[in-house]
# Entry
Amino acid sequence: MSEWKLIRLEFGRNVAHFGELGIGIEQTSERVRSDTLFSAWLSTYARLFTSAEVNDLIEKFKTNPPFRLSSTFIYQQINGEIIYYLPRPLKSPSGYSDNDLAISKSYKKLNYLPLKIWQRWYQGQGFTEQDRESLISTTKSEAFQYKEAFKIQKVPKIGVDRITRATNLYHTGMVQYRCEQQENEVKSLSGLYFLVQFPEANPELENTFLGVLDFLGGEGIGGERSSGAGQFKRNISTVLTPQWQEVINFQNGNAHSLISLFWQHSVTSELIHQASYELQERGGWITSSSADKRRKAVRMFAEGSVFLSQPEGQLADVTPDGFRAHHVYRSGISLSLPISIQGESRS
# Structure
């Protein structure tokens, strides 16, 4: 039986820079996708363990992944309750009419849903008339408070040319999450969380995973780490709440919604039959070497994509041409949640 953990990352007052391909250095995402999280964790693992152990672990991911990671998503505390947000599946929930122009604009703004709404729409009674009236009458519900969990600002930086030593002023986008001072400590009121699934209970591997993650927290994740950006602490509790247990163990689904990126070398026509998906191009620089090389870009299925059968995914070899120091991989190993959508047959 598989073992699931929920990991909350608390940034306190620390800012972070999460660049995305094509958005420019001045901008930042509010979260980290699964491939970036995997790469950061694996790079940290490589610093703590031998080359033989690293290679052995990579080979396991190629055949039978020892764990699967979701992307990170926003959580925030509202009125003493922790609200977890999930990407809205790209299939409409039962009860929702795509022809309802009165609410279509508000509905399309809901890229992320609070867990209780996500569960009700996609594992429960579906979209109700009460939901419709709520979208018409107010934008102050939890679903519309997503962007209140963080703020993004541009921070001035000075760049120095390696050859001429000339300086250049530029701005970098930084994301900061909500926090408050409580006596002698700073309490995080929002941040990032992700799910990790182990195919079976393995205390030794789980402890190793968490230990490497804690080390990564001290180093920081994302860009601008040399200035202290991206440092976090892991919330000590990794136990799923009863509601999360219900979501993960839902038995009446007829589809699967991605909560990670997904890639595999050959995608069958059966897999994408009646699927609803978005593609995300993924690139970036090699961070484990001094070589000034870009990884090969790949296109992956984005979070929220819906398939009738459960996608598995695999590692993508994105080693640049002519780069021989080591292989470079990007994780397309997927993680999804079961959902029920109207008018589809169960796979």
Summary: The radius of gyration is 21 Å. Residues 203-219 form the longest helix (17 residues). The mean pLDDT is 89. The chain has eight helices and 19 strands.
